[in-house]
């Protein structure tokens, strides 16, 4: 490589450390993104509003507006769903029912 190309590459590497910080590599060719919410209620609102968006997009499908990728939005909503926490609620509920 020429000297200018090496300098450009080093510059890009330095800038990437500062600016490319949203995606967190997982090591298996995919990345994680952190979604910050205040509590489970806000997470629930985020999930339900995402699902409502998909419903509206599907209802308006007759207008052939391809601006919303419903499959992608639903896939992300599925990833947001707190499955482990729901299992914990089941355990707590079983304990309360037994008493």
Which geometry do the CA atoms define?
Answer: flat
User: For this entry, what is the oligomeric state of its chains?
Assistant: single chain
- The share of residues in helices is 55-70%
Sheet of most strands: 2 strands, antiparallel
Keywords:
about 100 residues, flat, two-stranded antiparallel ribbon, 4 helices, 2 strands, mainly alpha, single chain
Description of the molecule:
The protein is mainly alpha-helical and about 100 residues long. The chain has a domain at about 30-99. The chain is about 65% helix and about 5% strand. It contains 4 helices and 2 strands, in the order αββααα. A two-stranded antiparallel sheet has the order 1-2.
What's this model, at a glance?
Helix content is 65%, strand content 4%.
Topology of this structure?
Elements: H1 3-19, E1 24-25, E2 31-32, H2 40-59, H3 70-80, H4 83-98
Antiparallel strand pairs: 1-2
